[in-house]
Every structure is written in structure tokens, then in C-alpha cells.
Design a protein that fits this description.
One of its GO terms (biological process) is methylation. Helices cover 42% and strands 21% of the residues. The protein contains 9 helices and 7 strands.
């Protein structure tokens, strides 16, 4: 289940991609399939080991085209172990709401992103997230949980302040919002409640089968209750010194 829409966020074979806070690796795997040179980074060592296993399995199964590479590594989003201007593309999906110093994370991403490079940022959407917080303290008051809820204009402003140029946005995963409202209402750790189990079966069916009816429904509902807010931006090219001199 991808949050980033690659029709709006083009990826070329050979692009060097950083999936920052990759989690289980869903976006990293898609980039690998598309022929990128992928680095999946997360502070959770257990998840990184699983991602590395899946990369190896994908390579063995021939799922990645020739020239594609994939590396999984532990790391700190506030102190990335890469030189300046190392990546063509950066994805950070459902991560910034967990990190106290979100401006520091943006600064690190800008540092390692090449001029002209592209970045995709996804966070939980304000409205659906507020409902979850209202229904359940346990949803967010856990170690490593969500510490803030972004309003769309607040996130876009922070992206601009970091030196990036937003060029598009959208909402995603409308069908997942009711599921999380049910989880919060019946208990975030209570997977046995009948409404939660029934809705989970619906989501699994939707993900596996991708029926037209639910695709159309989600597309129609995304602007209203989409669970995630996605912003795409580029890092501008800085004027060359000779260009600045010529302009004076």
C-alpha cells in the first residue's frame, strides 16, 4: 500500500533514492522495482533486518531490473551518514509526526538532496488524526508515538522555510480513516472487536484484489477523509557565481 503517488512523483531508473524512516520498506521496495539505487534507512534495527531480507529475496526473484541496487541500514534522521547532495530523491512517509525536531530532519534532507532533486513528505492528515486523538489517548501516548498533528498549511510552510519548493499535494487512504476510528473507539490493542475485524477484512480484500468499486470510492473520499496528507517538493538550483555577477 503506497502513500506516495509515483505518477505525480516520477522516478527514473538509476535515481539514487533515500527512503528515510523506511519502516517495513513499502516505498523502498517500489523504488527498487522501478530501477532506482535505493537506500532504506530507519532507526529500528529489527525492521531494517527484515527490509534487507526482502531486498535479497526480490533480487533473487528477479523483481528488480538490471542496474538497480538496494541497501538497508540503521541510522539517525537528524544525523544522516551521507555527504552533501548524495540523493536525487528522498521519501519520508509517516515519520515527521514522531520526531520532536522536525525542522532538523528537514534541514538534513535538504543537505543530502541534490539541487533539482525531489522530495515526498507524507504525514497523517489533520482532521482524521484529530478524531483518533479525541477517541483514544493510547493511540498517540506511547513511546515513539505521534507527538503532533500537522495542518496542511503548517507543513507546507515548514517545507518552504527549509529551502524547498512545493509543487503538488494530495490526500490518500480514505478507506483507512474509519478503520483507525474504530480501533481507537474499541481500543487500539483490541483486534477482536467485531467491527474492527470486519473492517480489517474489507481493507485486506481491497489491498489484495484492488476492485474498481473501492478504488473509485477511495478516490472520491480522499479529499474529505483521506488518512494521509502528501506534499511533493523540489530543491531549487542555486544561482552560479558567474550568473550573479552577470545580473549586476
Amino acid at each position: 500500500m503506497l502513500t506516495v503517488d509515483f505518477s505525480r512523483f516520477p522516478l527514473a531508473p538509476g535515481d539514487r533514492v533515500l527512503d528515510l524512516g523506511c519502516g517495513a520498506g513499502r516505498h523502498a521496495f517500489e523504488c527498487y522495482r522501478r530501477g532506482a539505487q535505493v537506500v532504506a534507512l530507519d532507526q529500528n534495527g529489527e525492521e531494517i533486518r527484515e527490509v534487507a531480507k526482502w531486498f535479497a529475496a526480490m533480487k533473487e526473484a528477479g523483481e528488480a531490473p538490471e542496474g538497480a541496487t538496494a541497501t538497508a541500514m540503521e541510522g539517525d534522521a537528524l544525523n544522516l551518514p551521507f555527504p552533501d547532495e548524495s540523493f536525487d530523491v528522498i521519501i519520508i512517509s509517516e515519520v515527521m509526526e514522531h520526531i520532536p525536531d522536525d525542522k532538523g530532519v528537514l534541514a538534513e534532507m535538504v543537505r543530502v538532496l541534490k539541487p533539482g532533486g525531489r522530495i515526498a513528505v507524507t504525514v497523517p492528515r489533520y482532521g482524521p488524526e484529530k478524531v483518533c486523538w479525541a477517541l483514544s489517548d493510547a493511540y498517540h501516548e506511547v513511546e515513539g508515538g505521534h507527538i503532533r498533528i500537522y495542518k496542511a498549511d503548517e507543513l507546507v510552510a515548514k517545507i518552504r522555510q527549509a529551502g524547498l519548493k512545493p509543487y503538488g499535494s494530495h490526500h490518500a487512504h480514505a478507506l483507512h480513516s474509519p478503520y483507525w476510528w474504530l480501533k481507537c473507539a474499541f481500543g487500539v490493542d483490541n483486534d477482536k472487536a467485531l467491527p474492527v475485524r470486519a473492517y480489517h477484512k474489507l481493507l485486506v480484500w481491497d489491498i489484495m484484489k484492488k476492485p474498481l468499486a473501492t478504488r473509485v470510492a477511495e478516490q472520491a473520499l480522499n479529499p474529505l477523509i483521506g488518512k494521509s496528507f502528501v506534499v511533493y517538493a523540489t530543491k531549487p538550483h542555486l544561482p552560479r557565481l558567474d550568473d550573479e555577477a552577470a545580473a549586476k
